[in-house]
Amino acid sequence: MSTPFLWHNGRIKPWAEATVHVSTHALHYGSSVFEGERVYATPKGPMYFRLAEHTHRLFESAAIYEIDIGYSEDEINAACIELIRANAMQSAYVRPIVFRGAGALGVLAKKDAPVDVAIMALDWGAYLGEAVEKGADVCVSSWHRPAPNTLPSWAKAGGNYLSSQLIGLEARRGGYDEGIALGHNGLLSEGAGENLFLVKRGKLLTPPSSAGILAGITRDSVITLAGQLGLTIEERDLPREALYTADEVFMTGTAVEITPVRSVDRKNVGNREPGPMTRALQQAFFGLFDGRTEDRWGWLSPVNAVVPERESQSPAIRSRTSQQPVSMEASA
């Protein structure tokens, strides 16, 4: 899955040169935050989808865990665009990650402990493969999402995805494409790495942001597009059995995009085919990238647009590399 280049601590470097030491704090304690973003090939060239919103959430996640990223949001945005250009990519899945670096062990990192920032761009297609067209077979997991005030679900943090691994592993062992988790209260939360939508009697329903979910950017996009289509949308608590009586079910996320669900716990959803509301939202969403849907919200950022020097590989970005605290992975 590697590409020729990635961005690491202020500069573009060959993929193989971006290494970390085994004492890296994030390896031991999960102290990382990250994003998943997409670049789409469009008739106007490669376009980032909601880059600014992803970067802003990255900074919010870091703030929750008191991790100093050391760059501005504009600098991270510019680095993301620079990386796509360096790899000459027309489409990509992009992974910015911020993590506490190498140093002494201990749950609480030292105040002067280094923080690494890296961005990878990969050629990665549909996360669940053909399910984006045919529909996914999912199950309700025996694993629940953490209760509020335990692990903050609004932070896209590496440690949170240990829960997702348990949900996904259980689903795969049972022969399913993906698993759905309940919240601490036994009500619907989200998938292992996706938000959840149901259609019931002409209404679009989704668990609220208080249901232990990551408030997804694709989720927000779908809610916005649904409003443009004149659909009735409700964010509300939903019991497990709502999945078994729904007319349509689909999942959303940067990796999964908009993927229909055709069965839950081997109970068919509708006629096991994507329903009309799911199809309408898919067409509106993917239409953003082929010109069928007007981008009224400024969600698309052209990769090949002229970027002012201060927003690309600026002296501020280059100088920070030399100011990094010397750590055990100095060769990275």
Question: How would you sum up this structure, described in words?
Answer:
- With 332 residues, the protein is an alpha+beta fold.
- The chain is built from nine helices and 17 strands.
- It has two domains: 5-125 and 297-323, Aminotransferase class 4, branched-chain amino acid transferase, N-terminal domain (D-amino Acid Aminotransferase, Chain A, domain 1), CATH 3.30.470.10; 131-290, D-amino Acid Aminotransferase, subunit A, domain 2 (D-amino Acid Aminotransferase, Chain A, domain 2, Alpha-Beta Barrel).
- The chain has helices at residues 25-29, 51-64, 73-86, 131-134, 161-173, 217-228, 242-245, 276-290, 315-323, and strands at 5-8, 11-14, 32-34, 37-42, 45-49, 92-100, 115-122, 136-144, 178-182, 188-191, 195-200, 203-206, 232-235, 248-253, 257-264, 267-268, 300-302.
- The strands form two sheets. Strands 8, 9, 10, 11, 12, 13, 14, 15 and 16 form a nine-stranded mixed β-sheet that branches. Strands 1, 2, 3, 4, 5, 6, 7 and 17 form an eight-stranded antiparallel β-sheet that branches.
- Helix 2 (51-64) crosses helix 3.
- The longest helix has 15 residues, at 276-290.
- The model is unreliable at 308-332 (pLDDT under 50).
